[in-house]
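Dear Dr. H.,

I hope your travels went smoothly. While you were away I took the liberty of generating a structure for the chain from your last submission, since the lab meeting agenda had it listed for discussion. I wanted you to have the full record in hand beforehand rather than looking at slides cold. The sequence, exactly as received, is reproduced here:
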Amino acid sequence: MLKNKKTTLLFTALLSLSLAHAEKITFSANSLSGTIGDKSDSTTLSGEAYVLTETMEISADSISMYGKDFRYIEASGKIKGKNMESELEFTCEKMQYDRETKIAKLSDNVTLIDEKNDVNAKAQLIEYNQNTDIAVIQINIELKQKDNVCKGAYAVYRKKGQKLELSGNAQIKQGEDTFRAQEITLDLDSQEITLDGRVKGSVVDERKSSKDSKEEESAQNSEEQTESENTAEGSESPAEGTENNSKEKTEGQENADE
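The corresponding predicted structure, in token form, is as follows:
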């Protein structure tokens, strides 16, 4: 068990030694405990834990590293991370990362952001393979890209080819247009959609909507103009009203004289 400053410095030196022929790891935390042996190394970082490898940056409430040359990294509690190689950022509550296979498993309220390609994915489970640049997304999926809002039970995001494959009540909304099918493939570059199995959808014709709107506005203006003209015709001018009153008064006086 490592507690004081001297043992922490000693552990840091031993860690650097154990990784002399492997990937360099930098770390920090409020407290640290761990062991180093011939067969297995392990350490736990607690309180503002931070780990930086050559390709992965992770901060969390707690981070554990174990296995030979600290092959495995596990984190929990308010996790924030970034893969420098693929330029993907993420947040979640639990994480497992294998430094040899370069596979990261993110779980519980996961958000994965590919800022370069304007992709933002949310789910309960995401497994990302750094070597293939493929993310498998599962449970309560919502992926946004440009005007697209994509939902389903299972999805595969192919970052290199910019393809998204959806299945399980798959749905894509593009503005006011909606597409549903058992399986949907979306080309994130060209915005081309391929639907397969029980296809449904609804599309809004913007040109027709715009034409209808103009016609409705024109009809309304015409109706208002007609009403205005009718009002004007039905009104008597002050001069006409005075003349009529004077005429009626004269006729009344003449009848009285007779």
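Two observations you may find useful: The chain has a mean pLDDT of 81. The CA atoms of residues 50 and 59 lie 4 Å apart.

With kind regards,
E. W.
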